[in-house]
Amino acid sequence: MWATTRSRHLTLGALWAIAVLVVLPLHSRGQPQRDFYSSVSNLLDLVKHEQEVRLMLLAYAERLSALQSNILSFVETRQPYHDLRTPSEVSDYMKHPVHAFHLMKRMIVDLGAIESQIHELHASDPLHNITAMRANRLLPWEEDFNGVAVSIARLQDTYLLDMDNLVNGHLTITSRPRNRTVPGRIPLTARDCFFMGQVAVHNGYYDRSVEWVESAIDKVVDEKPPSVPTEDLTKYLDLLIKKHDDVLDSMGKAGQHWQTYGVPVRERNKTPLQFQTKLFEEKLTFAQETQNYKRLCRGEQLRTPKMDSQLRCRYYYGRHGFLRLQPVKIEEANLKPYIITFHDIIGDRDINDLLAYATPRLFRSTHYGEHGMETSLIRTSSTAWLGDQDAAVATRLNRFVESLLGLGTQYLKGEAEFYQLANYGVGGQYIAHHDFLADIYADPNRKLDDFERSTGDRIATLMFYLSDVEEGGATVFPHLGVRLTPKKGNAAFWWNLNSDGEGEQLTKHGGCPVLYGSKWIANKWFRSNSNLFRLPCSRNRSQPLAPLV
């Protein structure tokens, strides 16, 4: 990929083409079931594999060095006949039997030793092992490199990271009540910033791509030699500005797959950002919903004190009084629809068992898309599924959850799905979505399996937080202004359907990008048909389901 930007004389067309070329996935290799950037657990595996490759290459380099030394010794060692000038002198020299012995020894023993070293070097060529490791997804593909670059662009956009510090390797959050800098050890080069700009524009971040290339221009001034020609950067920046302004003029400020400053690039500093908060509306514009999502991710307060005045914290004894001797703590986040956090309801033993089960089974998360289950930037995490009989921890959790909520938990009875265990890595997120599947059921082209056809929709969600997250990773509801901070041992719960079985539009929620740290969760989705007579009653069928009592 880097070779595409080395030329000192790129045409404008070639410059723009780079943005497309650098991020094309390697379709010939097939769809990977695992990637590295979407999971810190996988990144930790990659550290181990990097060490294996390092030792492999080091051993190869030592053998290569020994071979080079022997070759140089062989070719630089002068023989007496090298100084003889005429064929007759050479002929007289070779008539001596000891001289003949030395020549034979040189060509059999000395050269033979070099031949053996060359054969051994070919046999231990690390390229074969590296190729096999990459084919088996033990080493990253280009999708991973591009993916982590997109993640950084997403983090910069969501959390409004300070660009000067970011290019020097530091994460500085300036948009929150509590400013914080997470220091890094390795800065980015101008070439790195250039690449980030290319990836950003290819993924629709027209505004952020301009900032990245501007940072590359600032960075290259201090590089000797420059990692990328300055003239290439300035030409590319001119192209970006023109592209940004064209998109703004023809398509508007933002859409599902693009965003701009809202004004031409040259006027961006003249117009301060204006935020108008809209909440409790089922239909928000995409721009408004995205704005609420990002502001909540940054920790901004969108709700008024009046909205929160009826919320309370209390002890809860379970649906059947099972927890009477050890009630759990509930914190209400919203009443209609009902959203709560259970505090300290899953212990270290169960968490460790869940992580031990999930870690070796992680694969790239999917979501419901136009063509069935798909991977995309909508959801960037890695997932494993835990069946009811797969591990003892599943049995323990099912028994506890049924006592806690009064809802059935068994997959074979059609009451609930398996536990979905997910790990979010660098910039890992799940953009705003509904958990209920009404659109899936309404699609005549969708092929449903027996479980989907017979169990009904997802009536409720229980999300266990299995780790603390240093920065980012909150669960946010952009239509409600609700933000749930992940805390190890807690769990979030909400009803996805109203009393009449229709999807509650206000429960649209998303997982914020993980800025720093690793986020582990376990989801349990409950199905409606088998849980019909276990639900709390509501007087109005069009109202949200009643709170837990």
TrEMBL record:
PROSITE patterns noted in UniProt: FE2OG_OXY (PS51471)
Compartments, as annotated in UniProt: Endoplasmic reticulum lumen
GO molecular function, a single term: L-ascorbic acid binding
CC cofactor: L-ascorbate
EC number(s) stated in the UniProt entry for this protein: 1.14.11.2
InterPro entries assigned to the protein according to its UniProt record, in alphabetical order: Oxoglu/Fe-dep_dioxygenase_dom, P4H_N, P4HA-like, Pro_4_hyd_alph, Pro_4_hyd_alph_FE2OG_OXY, TPR-like_helical_dom_sf
Keyword presence, Endoplasmic reticulum: yes
Keywords assigned: Dioxygenase, Endoplasmic reticulum, Glycoprotein, Iron, Metal-binding, Oxidoreductase, Signal, Vitamin C
Domain annotation Fe2OG dioxygenase: ranges: 415-528
Secretion signal, residue range per the UniProt entry: 1-30
One annotated Gene Ontology cellular component of this protein: endoplasmic reticulum lumen
Key word Membrane present: no
Function according to Swiss-Prot or TrEMBL: Catalyzes the post-translational formation of 4-hydroxyproline in -Xaa-Pro-Gly- sequences in collagens and other proteins.
Annotated family: Belongs to the P4HA family.
Protein name per its UniProtKB record: procollagen-proline 4-dioxygenase
Organism: Rhipicephalus appendiculatus
Lineage: Eukaryota, Metazoa, Ecdysozoa, Arthropoda, Chelicerata
